[in-house]
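Order emerges. As here.
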Amino acid sequence: MPTKYDSPHYYYKDTIVLNGLCNAFGDYLERLNAVEKFDLIALLALWQSHDTEVQAEGNDPITLEQYLDVADGLFQGYSENIDRALQILINATEGDAISLLQSMSSQLSSGVFAQ
């Protein structure tokens, strides 16, 4: 019988960064609670939005690390898990971010998060 974990939306591309995140928080990031997943979704979406805008203006892409440095005041007061996740994701690519956005949205819809 299929379970909520059988959905293909839970699988990530096989990258060092995403594997590190799964090692820290579980294959489905099930050790992150719903708020933490929403926080990561927001952070990744804002980074990708800003990066897309920067590239549309003809500039080089910006890394997550560069974005966090520029937007430092926005990202304070997050949980230790988010701080740890951001340390793991510091070298994430656009593909990593998109994969995580899709996966975490699906996981939240299916109720896959720590209580």
Summary: The helical segments are 16-25, 34-56, 64-70, 80-89, 94-110. DSSP finds five helices and no strands in the chain.
